[in-house]
Amino acid sequence: MYDFIMNTYSRFPLVLEKGEGCYVWDNKGKKYLDFMAGIAVNTLGHGHKKLTYAISDQAKRLIHVSNFYWTKPLIDLGDKLVSHSDFDQAFFCNSGAEAVEGAMKLARKYASKNHPGRYEIIAMKNSFHGRTFGALTATGQDKYKKGLDPLVPGIMQADFNDFGSLLNLASEKTCAVLLEPVQGEGGIRPADEEYLKKVRQFCDEHDIMLIFDEVQCGVGRTGHFFAYEHYNICPDAVAMAKGLAGGVPIGAVLAKEKFSSAFGPGDHASTFGGNPLATAAANVVVDELFHGGVLENVQRVSAYLLKKLEALKDKFPTIIDVRGVGLLMGAEFKEPVAAIVDKCLENGLLIINAGANILRFVPPLIVNETEIDEGFEILEESLI
Ligand SMILES: *Cc1c(COP(=O)(O)O)cnc(C)c1O
User: Fold this and answer.
1) What pTM did the predictor assign?
2) Measured in angstroms, how far is the CA atom of residue 151 from the centroid of ligand 1?
3) Which atom in ligand 1 lies closest to the alpha carbon of residue 180?
4) Which residue from 212, 209, 207, 184 is spatially nearest to 196, judged by alpha carbons?
5) Pick from 84, 165, 193, 283: most CB atoms within 10 A?
6) Tens of pLDDT along 345-362?
7) Where are the domains of the chain?
């Protein structure tokens, strides 16, 4: 539609103009229910009062200073994330790919100091970790890698949820294991708890850094702030981004001190990372999740969403599986869902796929049962 923008997305032919709660409007005044939330980003929906106030208030004070200085929103956010987690230190950046890069760099840095000769990182098939060279190399889907060789050496993929496959790839050179506790882009595939326990134990035995990529499944999506809490297994580091600042670009790496202390001044950096605007926004998101009832809302509404999905599957034999955790759910169809996505858009529902045949449900975490009902009415109408 607009040729001066590089053609990297097959964009839908609409121009969005404003939003409120779980709804957005286009420039022709048409209203849409938003079940994709900017791909699991708009945690608190659109136009959230406290979030927009915090952003505009912070913008009036300071939008950016260098990381050579402290700011209060940065201090507050780091303190909150560390005190609500099993981690000791945070590093802030601007995106999911950068958070994954940061975690992988930390793993290599730790290994270089404690286990010289170790540098290999085992990621998973079917995973998604972002588009920068390191994160892309870790991503276990060939379709994203075409025409970009050579990629980063020393990164490989095991079969997800298959401990034997991990053991086959592991060696004296392994410094880290990287996985999404719930694979998002790869089709909404949750890990098995038993598998994660074995991975955790294996990493402990060999002092291998276990990294969870919670860019999509973290920040309350599972009904817990961190996805690892859903599994009762704590990684050594976690990569976060997407929903953390409710739509303002942010990324974070949280890690245990044993590992994070491998970074010293100058070892890693990001000009914008943790700037006061982004961290002011993230502080509101974190507060709303822990103290505003949002996590409880996810737990309640996700049970309702799953029931609706199961009922839909019973009604439409073209749906072969429904799965997921919290408000990160998928419905797998026998055929590609692109036509359904288009039909939903026409009928006033924003929704996306996760892999060709899987419809992804990642609404804002403030969604209620009435809105779920409305979304399913539009969806059913679009399936017939
Ligand atoms: C989206 C995503 C990323 C990449 O995040 P960007 O902000 O697009 O760089 C990384 N990991 C997972 C699991 C994601 O879903």
Assistant:
1) 0.98
2) 18
3) 13
4) 212
5) 283
6) 999 999 999 999 999 999
7) 16-47+293-383, 50-291
